[in-house]
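Pipeline run #58 for the internal structure catalog. This entry was flagged by the ingest filter as a single-chain record with no existing model, so it goes straight to prediction. Upstream metadata was stripped on purpose; only the residue string is passed forward. Reviewer on rotation: M.T. Logging verbosity set to normal.
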Amino acid sequence: MTAPIGNETIGTLLAHRTIRAFTDEPVGEEVMRTLLTAARASATSSYFQQATIIRVRDAAVREAVHAASGQPYVGGERGELLVLVVDLHRNAVIRERAGASTEPLERAYTFLQGCQDAMIAAQSIMVAAESLGLGTCYLGSILGDPDGLITALGLPERTFPIVGILVGHPAQEPQYKPRLPEGITVGVDAYPALEAHDAELAAYDERVTEYYDLRDASRRVDSFTEQIARMVGQGRAAQAPILDVLHRQRLCLH
């Protein structure tokens, strides 16, 4: 993927690859402090700062995250593991101390604000890490067992672990996975009508099929549209009782 204008930052963004295999070389404390500092400097909705980052260092806690994820590359000791938490607990405590109602923190909108904060911080970590030559991997799969994860991380009410991140020195060089065409994903003044881009979508399906065929000729090759038809809603995280857990955490009650 290319852009009309380039610089070092844009080059880092466009060169993103998901890395699932890491060497045993440690990331280093100065690098980790830098990544966490970049995350803390990220934009935050209404300046409420409703996100917390948990750096997982204990082997037993990492194994719990691994078990929740079900992904083999999450376990072990290679790479640093971070969990981004939507955190309305901190502001609930502040409001209680001030004698203010905590009811606003139970609204779906406030939870979405926390999601925004956590995901913006996560992306800052990713970009900062990749700008330093490290590899990264988002872990939406940790929601395969949200209750277990909440217990393992000692998360209080009004918090929720929204995503994990692995950061480390890459032990693989995967190809760039092609993205949907701009005409399908970018609209001007209105939602882009998919029907007007059927030819582009068909051509994209061919590119995706070729990508998977070149990556591993021994595995099943699906186009993008075939993957959407077959895979959406599959997997532990997609079938986990997320809303029930959110309600038990006193989040998204109304």
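catalog note: The CA atoms of residues 84 and 119 lie 8 Å apart.
catalog note: The chain has a mean pLDDT of 94.
status: ready for reviewer M.T.
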